[in-house]
Amino acid sequence: MPMNVGFEYVNAEQEYNEAKTTAEKVKALKKMLSMIPKHKGTEKQQAQIKKQIKKLQDQVEFEKKQGKGAKSFMIKKEGAGQVAIFGKTNTGKSTLLKMLSGKNLKIAEYEYTTSEPVHKMITFENVKLQGIEIPGIYEGFYDSKNGRQYLSVVRNAEVAIVLADSKADFDMIATELEKASIILTKTRERPEGFEVRIPYIKLSKNKFSIDLIPKLWKKMNKIRVQTKTDGRIAPNPIVLPKSSTVEDVARMIHQDFVRKFRYAKLWGPSAKFSGQQVGLEHKCKDGDIVEVFVK
After folding, report:
1. Do 257 and 287 sit in the same domain of this protein?
2. Apex 111 CA angle, 205 and 200, nearest 5
3. What is the CATH number of the domain that holds 255?
4. Is residue 74 situated within a structural domain?
5. Mean pLDDT, 10 residues at a time, the chain of 295 residues
6. Residue 92 sits in which domain range?
7. How many angstroms separate the first and last alpha carbons of the chain?
């Protein structure tokens, strides 16, 4: 049975996703719980919301005991995708982010050089990816003074890089992330409730290479589509989920382009030939160029 939620629930859910403090998240969740239709089809979701409220209320109490302000550490998501870098101290997280971004970072041989999350943009062909380095993970990191706040920064990441030389180190990192409802997966999976499932790439320090960047993009399950107008190709592509259609591209250009759509011409990997004429239902591929014609 579908949930059939109203706009009040959708708005409350958006408030939750945009909340900057734990208390704000609790308030938004309570609103979601009050707005969700009460029937058999929503029982599972109601239970998940209640579970998340309890978890965040415990976090509010934890923050009070730590004597810190309620405001979480935030990094604004930018670019075509977000990459989170996890590892113990001295595993080369800063070195890797420096290599991928081409930007200098503070690096030292002693532990805890990175004391809070650091972010730099990584160039992949015609898009930018946001790389975020999380301070060194250790057993008990989640329950440390800033652990919960720092891990909340990367809940929107599309890919994780885990730097671990042993299974024990990887398992320890995965366990700390699971405490924050962040589940590492080998492939992209549908999230369960308030869990976040992030596909990961496991690396050791001697495997660092800029050849990693295309692999990160592939893991994100996204495509880049450039638009064409009067013979000119837009330099900045539209970024869409994999399996998006010409209709999705047209809607991103302007809502009227769907309503007034006549046909589109296509160049690139999904075209049978250059300039192929296609309809709204045509599935695009990464690297396509689309020119939309309207009535």
Report:
1. yes
2. 40
3. 3.10.20.30
4. no
5. 71 80 85 86 85 82 62 79 95 93 65 76 96 95 87 90 95 95 86 85 89 95 96 95 95 92 96 96 97 95
6. 81-219
7. 40
